Amino acid sequence: MPTNSKKTTANPAHGRRRELLATAAEVFATQGYNATTVRRIADEAGLLAGSLYYHFDSKESMLDEILSGFLDELWTGYDAVLDAGLGPRETIEALVTESFREIDRHRAAVAIYQKESRHLVTQPRFGYLVDSQRKFEKAWLGTLERGVADGSFRADLDIRLAYRFVRDTVWVAASWYRPGGTHSPEEIARQYLSMVLDGIAGREPAA
Amino acid sequence: MPTNSKKTTANPAHGRRRELLATAAEVFATQGYNATTVRRIADEAGLLAGSLYYHFDSKESMLDEILSGFLDELWTGYDAVLDAGLGPRETIEALVTESFREIDRHRAAVAIYQKESRHLVTQPRFGYLVDSQRKFEKAWLGTLERGVADGSFRADLDIRLAYRFVRDTVWVAASWYRPGGTHSPEEIARQYLSMVLDGIAGREPAA
Amino acid sequence: MPTNSKKTTANPAHGRRRELLATAAEVFATQGYNATTVRRIADEAGLLAGSLYYHFDSKESMLDEILSGFLDELWTGYDAVLDAGLGPRETIEALVTESFREIDRHRAAVAIYQKESRHLVTQPRFGYLVDSQRKFEKAWLGTLERGVADGSFRADLDIRLAYRFVRDTVWVAASWYRPGGTHSPEEIARQYLSMVLDGIAGREPAA
Amino acid sequence: MPTNSKKTTANPAHGRRRELLATAAEVFATQGYNATTVRRIADEAGLLAGSLYYHFDSKESMLDEILSGFLDELWTGYDAVLDAGLGPRETIEALVTESFREIDRHRAAVAIYQKESRHLVTQPRFGYLVDSQRKFEKAWLGTLERGVADGSFRADLDIRLAYRFVRDTVWVAASWYRPGGTHSPEEIARQYLSMVLDGIAGREPAA
DNA sequence: TATGAATGAGAGTTCATTCAT
DNA sequence: GATGAATGAACTCTCATTCAT
Fold it and tell me: Could you tell me which residue ranges the HTH tetR-type domain spans (chains A, B, C, D) (predicted)?
């Protein structure tokens, strides 16, 4: 028996789990959770449907592991930003950049989250989604409010509307983003920030 | 002769169909198409599952009718805007406003479209979704290009990115919009346009 | 109000019934009883499925009326032959000829009978099918036995086998017979009788 | 080492399929394909309806496998006869004998074929039925024609009528034949051939 | 670890039948 | 006589899950 079995990559068993979860996430993202059969995941992974149950309790537990894994990493990044003591504008910039990085690394999980979270939040098992949403909203709303207060952001904003605007604008990108494309996540973040912060209108309006 | 005989309710047969489609759309939007059972729709409509098949060929044909009905109305509005000979900026403003009006009138259909269109486009039956998407892209991209050319929009925009930005930004609103709320569609459109066109940053950056 | 309404064709109501039964018989024969939907019959007859229930109690009662109507006419013809006091060979000839006449007049009913009688006989409602079969077997077997006894038929016949041979040979013709073709029923009967009685082999065997 | 390892039971997976197909064939033959529920087959086989779908794609694919399996074996036998270079009369004798052997081995499949082929031929999936029918007709008609030409068969025959006569006469036997009865297939074939070739009439007509 | 076979609940759909109008 | 709408039972089929091997 291995002595350091708690490490992630060191454990071959964990390696297999990850592979299977990655496969499952890809299929969930493409077809939707409900429309995905356990058989399809197994096919894609090269084993039989029943064999997946050696690794996971249920289809739902795969989904759970995918989403919670993603959220854990997301909050590691977000918390680092929020704890850095940046100004409102720089915080928004950092959060948006971090978000695109997460989309880059967890595209499938993000896509699943977008499609499925609305009805998952009603299930006790996925209570952490509600917690995450609340924390998320608090972080963004708070930053926007601070920014309006100190003049970083326009005073005439409907804050809740602006929050939804920025939030959706960023995350929906997961629906079309393909890792390894021409733009790096940071590059996309920069362009998005440019549009969100300064708008798309020309400085000198057309005659 | 009645003065209001041109209204939809004049045809009782079509009235029932509409009611049932509205019910189905609501459930599809809430639970997702795949996760929605025909029995659930029937329950909600107050009849038995089998009875729905007197009115519709299949669950899929309900979805079809909902989406095509929505797109028909959408394009009536869009075409009116596109044929009006407006400048690029005014066109974008009119399209965004029209979009929020459609979200107001077809909230469920829009939500369904957002969630399901990605895999529906692969089915021949829903080929019109592809057509619509192409036409949609052409209208928005073209307007943005014209606007960059005449200085209405910033010259340094990545046009495709800007297109996705505006497109998603508007339509995702269907996921949280509730008709009859405090903001009218036109009011929301105005605020969105303000953010999209001029950004959320303050004019005088914070010290 | 008509004074002689008890006659068959005189009563317009009966006329409608007959039309509908003829339509139903045609569809039953083509598709099989089970595979035929009441809606299909109604379509073919130019009314709605529910409306058939003004004329008939049930789908099964249509089948019943078709089969019993056919058997009534069949036995009128058969009884006339059997009561005519003919010799065995002439009796067989007359029965076969009469059978082809019935196939000509009741093709659909005969086809239905062939396909469905086997499982219908188990239902009490169709008990008359069993009676008819018994009477049928008695008539044919008896005639064959008489014929063997008086030398009309070969002495080395397995009578039961010969009975099945003649019976099937005749009635299966309903599966390909089309009224109004080049051969009259009497002509077909003559050719069949020639084969059944004298065989298809050449008189002088080929070297 | 087992001496009979070449038998079908050597492959356990195929063994189960065969069992299930045999059960299905029996029920289809008895009740008719349409009237047979998948549940009934499952009951008869001792498992649940859904479990059948582990082995077969659909009810229709069971039917398909039953019929194509039967036709494959039938044509193996027929082709051997047709390739043997026999004279017309001997060919007919061999084909009839082979047919009764097939009825003996595939009674259920033959009965199903008789009842269902007429509407199955319209479905593309069962196109091979049409092919088989054409080949069948060609083989029998050709043999009869050759026989008329060389005097083996009567010159005054309507060939098509004779073809149908022989064809039906043989295959309808599947509707009453029960394997393991008093007559072997070869014995029945001999008696049938005697009737078909030489007729049932006595040599010396009754005075 | 993985397979092959089965389970059982529930899905979408069909259809004979009913009945108020 | 016929329609339009609905019923309710049954059907074929799907699928997450289990378990002996």
Answer: 14-74
